[in-house]
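Much of what follows relies on a compact textual record of a protein's fold. Think of the row as the fold of the chain written in a discrete alphabet. An example makes this concrete, so a full record is given next.


***
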Amino acid sequence: MHIESIKLKNFKSFKDAQMLDIPRFCVIVGANGSGKSTLFSVFEFLKEALTSNVHTALIKLGGSRGFHEVRTRGGEGNIEIELKFRESDSSPLVTYFLSIGELNDRPFVAREILKYRRGSGGQPRHFLDFSKGEGEAVTNEIENVTDVRQLKREHQKLRSPEILAVKGLAQFERFPAVMALGNLIENWHISDFHISRARPEQEAGYAEHLSREGENLSLVIQYLHQRHPEVFQKILAKLSERIPGITKVDAKTTEEGRVLLRFQDGAFEDPFLARYVSDGTIKMLAYLVLLYNPTPHPLLCVEEPENQLYPML
């Protein structure tokens, strides 16, 4: 997935802002308080809104004041988010627009639009257009539509104006364009890795993807070692290049059902447990696990990657 542009209105510190021509690999640099984390919170907000609804997402992001805390202070009008992206290099340009208003102290989806456009010319085709919980969505497969007159639209009404149409309709295969967007957002990942969360022993379990704060790192290592040994060897090779002395990493399950993350240093006979290795070693391993994910996230955001690491790494 390649997000090419972002436009925001009345979203926290961004009263009216846009980022254009965003590269596939993008590093956001700025002083404290300049809005780096706020930009990432846009993706968190959309993912939470898809999982639950816009009211819950606003409360999680802005606390008890919800809408009024998320909307730019002193700002008027709705909160607006617009993303332009491609699912792959050969995919059509997708525009997703969301406008959130408030009525009687309750937020609602004032407008939600999903548009696809092929090539650099021509008008975008609306595949979804909803307002206040009611609207139309197209049931055609995107690839099969060559003329706007071929679009088959179906009217739908959601049970609440707080619910995203993408959430409701993505459950049905007859709305393939909407389902594709829902699957993408659902699998976004925002990493805010915490060393203290990754060090403790974990209860035995199963995890294919690193969690937001990384507390399941040992479970993911265990999964990669067992199910994707070739990927695990790549991670270990990269770790050894960057941290001299590390020759082996594994996850061992104890008789009590705890999973221990262990590091082998070539200079020592016995491996070290995670609580005895450096912060940088743990964090480098976590980021390599994210970057070498066998089933990559369509969007990966990493908060403050330089913490506990030498910046050049």
In short: The mean pLDDT is 89. Residues 195-294 form one domain.
